[in-house]
Amino acid sequence: MNPLELFEKWFSEEKQASKLKLPAACCLSTIGLDGYPNSRFVSLKEVTEEGFVITGPLNSRKGTEVEETPKAALSFWWTETQRQVRIQGDVTKVSTHKARKYFNERNRSSQIVSFGFQQGKKIESIKYLQNQFNQKIIEFEGKEIECPETWSGIIIKPTRIEFMRFKETRLHERKLYSRVKNTWEISILQP
């Protein structure tokens, strides 16, 4: 089975079994500008034939890191099905058309935050942040919010995908799919 299809199957099974609000939450790891790994939780938007799509501001820390070193990793942990998926791959940007589509699917508050704030920048206080947000709500009342030029999506094109099914015996089942040229090689790994 193609590993992207296997991922979709496992993801679907977790969504059916889970009562979690955010089953698409995953840990995105990038190579920091200072050489240290950098991880944060993001939301998977879509799985395409090309790979795994996440979105956000390109001028954020994650955006500048993947611009400098276009490689990333995603990790998923699904409690209900006791499964983990780890993905490593090369990063490319989605098209402008796709970025706008993803932006338009966001709820209004998320659009306001994406348009009116610079992710990760220092601020005076939480109160200042709330006041700025309230002003943006008034400013955009009754108006469509355009996708900012600094906001887009990235695709992580997998070179390796590891699937691990946890077992009570600790003899976890691990399969590693590695892309070699245009085919997937499968290895069974020890727990």
UniProtKB/TrEMBL annotation:
Cofactors required: FMN
InterPro entries reported for this sequence: Pyridox_Oxase (IPR000659), Pyridox_Oxase_N (IPR011576), Pyridoxamine_oxidase_dimer_C (IPR019576), Split_barrel_FMN-bd (IPR012349)
Pfam families: PNP_phzG_C, PNPOx_N
Enzyme Commission designation: 1.4.3.5
Keywords: Flavoprotein, FMN, Oxidoreductase
Sample GO molecular function, one term: pyridoxamine phosphate oxidase activity
Gene3D superfamilies associated with the record: Electron Transport, Fmn-binding Protein, Chain A (2.30.110.10)
Domain Pyridoxine 5'-phosphate oxidase dimerisation C-terminal: 151-191
Domain Pyridoxamine 5'-phosphate oxidase N-terminal, residue spans: 14-122
Family: Belongs to the pyridoxamine 5'-phosphate oxidase family.
Name of this chain's protein: Pyridoxamine 5'-phosphate oxidase
Organism: Patiriisocius hiemis
Gene encoding the protein: pdxH
